[in-house]
Design a protein that fits this description.
37% helix; 463 residues; 17 helices; 7-stranded antiparallel beta sheet; binds flavin-adenine dinucleotide
Length: 463
């Protein structure tokens, strides 16, 4: 057994450390389509913040790289360990420490999953509103990726829900940031710099997140359009209407056919309408009062008809829920169909039509297939790229990102940069911003041991 493995076992106990062949394959990868799995030297499963601090102190003293891991559902290769490094898996730190009904917050350990939190909140008629497509994801992973998902158009993303953190910095110091309040102007906002930092600045050991009343009633409205531009052009008008949708998703006809074929979702679209429909808009409304929901649903249906929808369907609740569930599985369908990469560019939502037109031209010019669906309400476009030639694919993706950035967009809306998109960041992002990010990393993690090689190349981790 190596010295490091022995030292880790001294901290957490031998049962909470694996090495060699005892390491389960799950710890070697996440769900990124392009990433190569890597076996770490060891996997350590701390049970407390004190354990985490001691693990980081050991790594700082020995220069061993640490890669934080929640549930491994990430799509950017960000929790894949480095050769000779150690995975810090938060699966044992999975307690909901408090559901504070007066301050409307939950205090959670990082290994708590979204599903676990949702089940615990249901009896209180409360909801934690961030629903990225995979409910087995951990809150620690959500914080580190600033996870978004379908409900961002109403509630925002993870960073809008995180009020405070406990985190271990790269020396092993434990800090607490924020608290059970929504406002604070007390120096730099350290909570928000850790949110979305993909495990490169600190290991999150506790989070205080906002809770909301859970509305009892929901309605799903489906509107087929003759063109993608029709769908995406309707989105700003729906948002501006004041109806306050919970989610606004677009699904192109290829993805909709896959949803029908793979998940047997029957949404009752007239065959003549289906034949003309190139894209679909799905809008979900929710309310605590049924009469108000009905009123808003009718208003939305009229609005969509006026915006050029071929037809408007208010789905029965079971069909509506099945459609949303199947839409959440779009990633698995793209993977099964042989997609080579998944992108999650974000652009200002009013620029989606222009952006999608540019993507279609680029795909055609490179002889590639690019299909998608997306969180249209927040301009977050999920594109499945089918192009087997790695060089052609790289150039296409570079151009697809560049086209979005020229419209004021960003390379990733919610999946993060990880290891898999960092080449594009290096090629396209402002060098002054990247240099500042490296200086920030060096301040949090002076030994460069926290998830090196994620967001930046490891050799450039120091300023
Ligand atoms: C089918 C499918 C659909 C998805 N849909 C969406 C979607 O709609 N929106 C969306 O945003 N994402 C989506 N995702 C991506 C994924 O679910 C999110 O990125 C999620 O936040 C990852 O959580 P995790 O626990 O699996 O993190 P992991 O994959 O384990 O790790 C992700 C990152 O977090 C870091 N990390 C984990 N725990 C900690 C910690 N305690 N401290 C510091 N860093 C930590 C890791 O080092 C890594 O950088 C989807 C994934 C799948 C498979």
């Amino acid at each position: 057994m190596s010295d490091i493995v022995e030292a880790l076992a001294d901290i957490v106990g031998p049962a909470a450390v694996s090495s060699g062949d005892a390491i389960n394959d799950d710890y070697t990868h996440d769900e990124a389509l392009t990433a190569t799995a890597q076996r770490p030297l060891a996997v350590v499963r701390p049970a407390s913040t004190a354990d985490v601090a001691r693990i980081v102190e050991l790594a700082a003293a020995t220069g061993v790289a640490l890669t934080a891991r929640g549930s491994g559902t990430g799509l950017s290769g960000a929790c894949i360990p480095v050769d000779g490094g150690v995975v810090v898996s938060f699966e044992r730190m999975n307690e909901i420490l408090e559901i504070d009904l007066d301050n409307h917050v939950a205090v959670v350990q990082p290994g708590v999953t979204l599903d676990q939190l949702d089940q615990a909140l249901k009896p209180h008629d409360l909801v934690y509103p961030v629903f990225p497509g995979e409910s087995s994801a951990s809150l620690g992973g959500n914080v580190a990726t600033n996870a978004g998902g379908m409900r961002a158009v109403k509630y925002g993303v993870t960073r809008h829900q995180v009020l405070g953190l406990e985190a271990v910095l790269g020396h092993g110091e434990v800090i607490r940031t924020g608290g059970k309040f929504v406002k604070a102007t007390t120096g730099y906002d350290l909570t928000q710099i850790i949110v979305g930092s993909e495990g490169t600045l600190a290991l999150v050991t506790e989070a205080i997140v906002r809770l909301y009343p859970r509305p009892a009633h929901a309605a799903t409205v489906l509107a087929p359009f003759a063109s993608l531009e029709g769908v995406t052009g309707a989105v700003p008008k729906i948002v501006a209407s004041g109806i306050g949708p919970l989610l606004v998703e677009y699904i192109d006809f290829i993805t909709m056919d896959a949803i029908r074929n793979n998940y047997g979702v029957e949404v009752g679209v007239d065959p003549a309408v289906k034949a003309q429909a190139l894209a679909y808009l799905v809008v979900v409304l929710e309310d605590r009062r049924e009469d108000r929901l009905e009123e808003n649903t009718e208003e939305l249906a009229n609005l969509l008809a006026g915006l050029g929808a071929l037809d408007v369907y208010v789905l029965p609740s079971t069909a509506g829920a099945k459609l949303i569930e199947a839409r959440e599985k779009a990633f698995w369908m793209a993977k099964a169909a042989g997609a080579n990469d998944i992108l999650d560019m974000v652009v200002p939502r009013a620029s989606i039509p222009q952006y999608m037109a540019a993507v279609a031209d680029l795909a055609q010019a490179s002889g590639s297939l690019v299909v998608g669906c997306g969180h249209a309400g927040d301009g977050n476009v999920h594109l499945s790229v089918f192009q087997n030639d790695a060089d052609v694919r790289h150039d296409l993706i570079h151009d697809v990102f560049a086209a979005g950035m020229s419209l004021g967009g960003a390379i990733s809306g919610e999946h993060g940069i990880g290891t898999e998109k960092k080449a594009y960041v290096a090629e396209l992002e402002d060098p002054a911003k990247l240099a500042l990010m490296r200086r920030i990393k060096a301040a949090f993690d002076p030994h460069g041991i926290l998830n090196p090689g994620t967001i930046f190349d490891a050799s450039e981790d120091s300023p």
